[in-house]
Amino acid sequence: MSGAALGLEIVFVFFLALFLLHRYGDFKKQHRLVIIATLLAWYLCFLIVFILPLDVSTTIYNRCKLAVNSSPAESNGSYVTLAPSKQKCFKPWSYIPNGIMPIFWRVVYWTSQFLTWILLPFMQSYARSGGFSITGKIKTALIENAIYYGTYLLIFGAFLIYVAVNPNFNLQWNQLQTIGIAAANTWGLFLLVLLLGYGLVEIPRSHWNGAKRGYLLMKTYFKAAKLMTEKADAEENLEDIMEEVRKVSESIKYNHPLRKCVDTILKKCPTEYQERMGRNMDDYEDFDERQNSYPSEKSLVKLHKQVIYSVQRHRRTQVQWQILLEQAFYLEDVAKNETSATRQFVHTFRSQEPENKIIQYFYTPTVEWYWECLLRPWFYRVLAVVLATFSVIVVWSECTFFSTKPVLSLFAVFIQLAEKTYNYIYIEMACFLTIFFLSICVYSTVFRIRVFNYYYLASHHQTDAYSLLFSGMLFCRLTPPLCLNFLGLTHMDATISHRKTQPTAYTSIMGSMKVLTFIADGFYIYYPMLVVILCIATYFSLGTRCLNLLGFQQFMGDSEMTSDLIDEGKELIKREKRKRQRQEEGENRRREWKERYGNRDDSTRNRVVHADQKESSFSETNINRPLSKYTRSNGRTERDRIELLQDAEPLDFNADLINDDPLELDSGR
């Protein structure tokens, strides 16, 4: 079992990252390199979170073994061993042999840093580029990232010159490497505290509000009004872009050198627009450079980029609208079924997706009613209280983790109590729950935030390539400082605990931050205290109120604009509900008609087929007769018949010309 735990977690985390990426990305339509790069970034970050508790338990066992093999006063190199415990050290079930974890952390860390600082920014520009060739996209990506890369190279070059000129500094390669790691972690910690302060309050509050049916329904109406505005804007923008594409397609004919670029743009357009442009286009006209002015390749690249963005946005709003409608219908059904006397959950509309028979067998309407109307609100309330308790513990520990005598950080107290008894399962569970809760607070904020239309993680395969790559960048920059913050909260970091004990393998890869004392003893210790201010600001919704004052509609119960949007969304949901009901009524009528008259139609169809078979057999017997005597006349008659059919003009159908009187039909004949 020495490496089994590590192998199982590596496989489990891979499928977890693959599942989340499949939920937000689209494997069929997005580029494979984008999927692979995003999957690798998410996988490495999740892997660090899941493997770090194993590193902590392995380090505690190594400390125990080192303490047992040496005396209390004996020093072992640069480490001073702890007093041996009366209990004998035993190897944990998840023990990882020496030498594996340093190599593992080194590969994972530097790969994630290469992704976040070099590869993913380049791929972002490559994915958003409107170039028609790989060379053109690479050129555009290099130009867009020239300032980005040049700024870092300039800062790094100035620092190297300062170190070389100043005789007081004698930095070696390891120290220079530590400075680079400290700079990256400082940037990540700055963003980490902002996201953590929001998540520590918003996650418990969202679960508490999840137990309020009226609150969720009002917020859904509010979202419906905002999404309808965005949906209409996306449709209007797509129409404008398609009109521009139509003009370009009509001006550039089939034998123009830029026609291949236009065909590439047309392939990115929706199918209905492609068919419309194909019908209105005449490709048999030659182009004349003297008479017509044609767009340049640069303008086509810009148009290609606009088409990709507008089509993606239009598709995303359409899918989100359907999802929001289902959510609104569900919440209205819950509100109706709460007063049901039969205690059976009744849906207004049938589910469009086929239900699993096993789930349908166990999750009966009665079970669904008890869960949705009785148990689920209480479950959300209890979960909100538990999460709020964790948030309070995190805030307290963030403000007191620098205190070692006495130890005030609650997470450090829990780990040290388990370390005395060498209860490795408890250590790993405590470490996993702590870092998992911190990760949920940070990562969920990354999934929730939206920077206009440039960055937005939309579920149901509606996230664009730029947002996927940007999320991978954020994860790679936030995870290392998150893990260092966790090790500081549990006093497993020697820089915080001030104990000369054997460090974890992850801390040894990061190096000693004593090279930059103002960061190790100042910023890393006192900056996390700002999480208290951010939690207070999030609790009173100061950010939401500021955005509302700036004109960005936010859901606020005491706002007149919010009430207007709720009323508007309620009317939109009613309209869509009536439309859905009319569609289902029409389908039910057609189904009843088929069930009632289906057999009669089948018998009529059988009689028609039988009559056709008789007629065909009669004609075959006539044809098989000897026709040598009438060959010429029959051939002439056939030719006359064909000519008459060719000369005949089609008649326009007019319902007024139909006469239902059989007597007039007979007289006509």
UniProtKB/TrEMBL annotation:
Highest taxon above the source species: Eukaryota
UniProt-annotated stretches for the region Disordered: 576-639, 650-669
Keyword Heme: no
Chief subcellular location: membrane
Membrane topology, from the record: Multi-pass membrane protein
Acidic residues bias spans: 658-669
Family the entry assigns: Belongs to the LIMR family.
Gene Ontology cellular component terms for the protein in this record: membrane
Gene Ontology biological-process entries: adrenergic receptor signaling pathway
Species per Swiss-Prot/TrEMBL record: Glareola pratincola
Record's compositionally biased regions (Basic and acidic residues): 582-617
Polar residues bias: start-end ranges: 618-634
One Pfam family cited in the UniProt record for this chain: LMBR1
UniProt protein name: LMBD2 protein
Keywords in alphabetical order: Coiled coil, Membrane, Transmembrane, Transmembrane helix
Name of encoding gene: Lmbrd2
